[in-house]
Specification:
By secondary structure, the protein is mainly α. The chain contains eight helices and no strands. The radius of gyration is 20 Å and the shape is globular. Pfam families: DUF6245 (PF19758).
């Protein structure tokens, strides 16, 4: 079952060229690549399907940047965030997700948050705030993954108990990290600096 749809039909194939065109439309390129350059990039990364996935994720990042700027301008003009839910509803609509595919889409989004935080926390001590954020984000990723399993025949069904147990342990660890904080301004500032020293793309 596709993460974007509960339909039995195969999802449309996303080409590197089509995603590259979308990136160009968002102004992500100083100079859009030619077909020959895209073909060379595909060869370099292991195939057109790999390049398409890489560019699709780049498009997701570019869309986030565009969305943040557009929302900021909207709130600045409106003077409030009244229309924010209206705008954010478009994420689900544009994803094409329906039925169980909605949790698949949410799991994919959560992994885009949880993955980097988990990677940073494995490379360095992010402090209580950063560590708690990494734990909670990955726990959410695991729980949403569990929600994408809709029938016992799913090969991931056997991992449900393990994932839920891991999520429970992560949430308990996050609570313990936050209990370490006394709440003083100096401590909070130090915790934030500790986190941002290790954040990178």
């Amino acid at each position: 079952m596709s993460a974007a749809s509960s339909s039995s039909q195969a999802p449309p194939v996303v080409s590197a060229a089509s995603v590259s065109a979308a990136l160009a439309a968002l102004g992500a390129y100083a100079k859009p690549p030619t077909d020959a350059e895209l073909a060379a990039q595909a060869d370099a990364v292991g195939g057109e399907h790999v390049l398409a996935a890489m560019l699709a994720n780049a498009l997701y990042g570019a869309a986030i940047g565009a969305g943040m700027m557009a929302e900021g301008r909207m709130i600045e003009i409106e003077g409030n965030d009244r229309a924010l839910p209206l705008g954010r509803q478009q994420v689900l609509k544009a994803s094409g997700a329906t039925g169980p595919g909605v949790t698949g889409m949410l799991h994919w989004q959560a992994s885009q948050v949880g993955g980097p935080l988990r990677g940073w926390s494995r490379r360095a001590d992010l402090g209580p705030l950063g560590g708690a954020a990494a734990d909670v984000a990955w726990a959410l990723t695991l729980l949403l993954q569990a929600l994408t399993v809709t029938e016992p025949t799913d090969p991931r069904f056997d991992d449900l108990h393990k994932n839920v147990s891991e999520a429970r342990a992560l949430l308990a660890a996050a609570a313990g990290r936050l209990d370490e904080l006394t709440g003083t301004a100096a401590e909070m500032a130090a915790a934030l600096v500790r986190l941002w020293d290790h954040v990178d793309a």
